Amino acid sequence: MxxxxxxxxxxxxxxxxxxxxxxxRILLAADGLGYSFHDTVVKxxxxxxxxxxxxxxxxYCIEGEGEVEEVSTGQVWPLRPGTMYVLxxxxxxxxxxxxxxxxxxxxxxxxLSGEETHDASGSxxxxx
Length: 128
Ligand SMILES: CC(=O)NCC[C@H](N)C(=O)O
Hints:
CATH topology: Jelly Rolls
Number of domains: 1
Largest sheet: 6 strands, antiparallel
Radius of gyration: 14 Å
Distance between the termini: 26 Å
CATH architecture: Sandwich
Strand order of the largest sheet: 1-2-3-10-5-8
Shape: globular
Bound molecules: (2~{S})-4-acetamido-2-azanyl-butanoic acid
Helix content: under 10%
């Protein structure tokens, strides 16, 4: 077994910050589990259009209030602690942190190596 801490991640390149979010990637491809595990904060007032063409992402909200929109249908779901949304079809989506910062536990498969940033389409590069 092994143990990792959020506080250790904060001083590594796997702490990725952008205008709209801060992603603390605790478990990475190098850990050999087949998925990466992130503790991510999305900033209040931000809107992000994302589309993970090379990954599946599951997002479990643990703090804050906002919403997620599925681009293909326009359907909008509120996000509150205890709500999980899963992008199992590489779905284009829009995250809005309407009321407060949002905090998520995120799982990516395949695992991220740790330093990925969004390209213009809101995607991360494929592994390798
Ligand atoms: C929901 C969200 O913030 N997505 C962008 C960041 C991504 N979840 C990550 O942790 O890299």
